[in-house]
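Operator note (shift B, R.M.): manual run for Carbohydrate ABC transporter permease requested after the automated queue skipped it. Running by hand, logging everything below so the morning shift can see what happened. Input copied straight from the record, untouched. If output looks odd, do not overwrite the archive copy; leave it for review.
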Amino acid sequence: MTLFPIVMALLGSFKSNAELTAGATILPDVWHFKNYAEVWQQAHFSTYTWNSLYVSILTTVGTLIVASMAAYAVDRLNYVGKSVYVALQAATMFISIGAVVLRPQFELMVKLQLHTSLTGVILILVSGHAYIFFILLSFVKAIPRELDEAAMIDGCSKVWIFTRIIFPLLKPGLGVAALFTFRNAWNEYILPLVFTMSQPKLQTLTVGLAGLRYGIASAAQTHYMMAGACLSILPLLIVYVLANKTFMQVTSGSVKG
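Run finished. Output pasted below as returned.
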């Protein structure tokens, strides 16, 4: 039941537009492999794919760095306002304002002169890291504090402890967080749409795919839309294969009692 729409989209991507519109057959009468080459070149999917990779990769890296440092600081350090910070992070997860925040976000990026590039989209996506923060916080709590104490006895600073001990031991959590972050950034539609309305060359794959479907010649490009949808799935599958190895990993016992 879950795979059926994907299979139908994959088979439809090899059909002609007339055959796909008629919907009389499941398998293509003639396999049109050229659909992928045409959608890659004529529909500018190469540009859209690069833009999506640029946004998704930088968003993933930035989110992992910021969220992991925040999780380490909350669990290991004592400072004024820590409980307030955690409460604010939790509030952003349970209060969904939706499109209401688009205008202030855009105006903020205008003041920072980042509204004409994808950098503004990346910064906004990185700032929304609450659920990644709580995922990594649980992994940080599982790391024995004896490692920190042993490192401090050897004269290590907090920065050294985080970069050399905590961060490497967070690999299982980082893998899970990277998968979720990359998926959300790759599938993001509203933010890239708002920030690229005046610059089509900066559109991401989700925006470009929707434009292909609802454009002027949408009725003549349904087979291209199917091929583009199948192409958009490939990066997510690759990231899943790479991150899946970390799902079954656990923090190795570094301290034996």
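Quick read of the result: The chain is about 70% helix and 0% strand. Residues 250-257 have pLDDT under 50 and may be disordered.
Leaving this for review. - R.M.
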